[in-house]
Amino acid sequence: MAAHLRVFIAVVSVLTLLCVSYLILGSDFKIHQTRTISRAPLVKDAVLNAVKLQTQPPSRGNTDTSPVKEGQQLSQSLSARGPCADGLCLEYLSTSERSDFDKCTGRAVFLSQRKFKSTALNNGTCHFVNGTGRRRVALASFRGSGNTWVRGLLEMTSGICTGSIYCDFTLRSNGFAGEYIQGSSVIAFKTHTHPAGAEAAVYIVRSPWDALVAEWNRQCNEKSRKRNITETEHSLSVGVEYFGHNQSWEKFLHQSADCWQTSVIEWSKFGKQHPLLVVYFEDLKANVTGEVERMLDFLQVSYSREQVEERLEQNFTLFKRRHHREFEHYTTEQRAYITQVVAKTKQELENSDSTGIIQIERYT
Question: pTM for the full model?
């Protein structure tokens, strides 16, 4: 009897030891696993959470902006979100487009958390389309010429997402779901360069005097913006001390004026071989409805005048520069330099037999 008791006690002791060891090892494994995950939040947490958000069906007509699961927000819609259950129609994206979508969405969530302690992600009001048989259309411009504004107008009036060759996390977080998508599943894709494979283009041209000021405002605010993800570098202005004889402004001006010239010349050449619609920023400001309808016609999007006017009444102003400062940005010498650049651009267009495609005479 005593022998049986000793055996029983020994067995219980062994089992107890095994249980304690399992708990210790399991705890160590969980700690190691947690540390590993914390080193790569973009891969596991940000991407998966962001993608999960995309697949949640939107609530049609819901104006409640209270946080939903995992602290993220579903976007509000101006109208019905499109023909797909998930609103965005992610099934229309090709494999490579879906991969780019996931990368940019994950990056937007991760950087929003790190910089602004926010996990809010606005999916906008657009949806993707079946790109089979559709041409790839670039939405091109020199920087500071209103590309983001035009994207907002096209998405409002067509309901179709615009894309971009860039992954701007502030734009992605504030409703441009097509960031980093460059295929035919978007109505057009933003670019400030000359992308390979574009079959047609909408080219936005703006006075170099105004475009340089707008881009310098954006760059200065990009460096100084710290806390508010919706108060972006696209919508703020800087003071007079950043212009005039400021050495950084001088350097930027000379480099960027030459880039404006290159942009106009390159896209004029593109227009000799491919369909090209030129939209002048100044005309767009003066007649938004008419210019948007011209773009929708070129992009082969059906619409009604009533629909366009109704949606434009919403007045897309998210990235409109709200704090315009009235002062002289240029010195006399700087104005003379830009005047010279415009004249050289006009002459080079004449030499390359590209005159008339982009009318820069209005800026001389």
Answer: 0.75
In the three-class reduction of DSSP (H, G, I as helix; E, B as strand; rest coil), residue 110 is classed as: helix
- The pLDDT, as a whole number, for residue 352 is 86
Name residue 284's beta-bridge partners.
Answer: none
Backbone φ and ψ of 138, nearest 5°: -85, 140
**Cα atoms in the Cβ-side hemisphere of radius 13 Å centred on 271:** 23
Local structure of residue 44 (DSSP, 8 states) = I
Range list of β-strands (E), the chain: 137-141, 163-164, 189-191, 200-205, 276-280
> Tokens 């949806």, residue?
127
Rounded Cα–Cα distance for residues 294 and 214 (Å): 25
DSSP string, 222-237: HHH--S-TTS-TTS--
Q: Shortest CA distance to 171 belongs to which of 91, 92, 111? A: 111
Planar angle of CA 239, 243, 246, nearest 5 degrees: 120
pLDDT value of residue 127: 95
CB neighbour list of residue 320: distance below 8 Å, 6 or more residues apart: 149, 235
Give the largest CA-CA distance in the chain: 112
99 is written with which tokens? Answer: 């991969």
Q: Which amino acid is at 346?
A: K
Q: Name the token pair of 225.
A: 């913006």
Quickly list DSSP for 311-333.
HHTT---TTS------S----HH
Angle formed at CA 60 by CA 57 and CA 66, multiple of 5 degrees: 80
Strands 276-280 and 163-164: unpaired
N-term to C-term CA, the chain? 112
The helix or strand, by DSSP H or E, that contains position 10, with its residue range, turns out to be helix 2-39
Q: What is the pLDDT of residue 221?
A: 78
Q: Is residue 101 within a helix (H) or strand (E), and if so which, with residue range? A: helix 95-116
For the chain (length 364 residues), average pLDDT per consecutive 10?
54 48 39 33 41 38 30 30 77 95 92 72 87 95 95 94 94 92 97 91 97 90 55 59 90 96 96 96 95 97 91 68 71 96 94 88 90
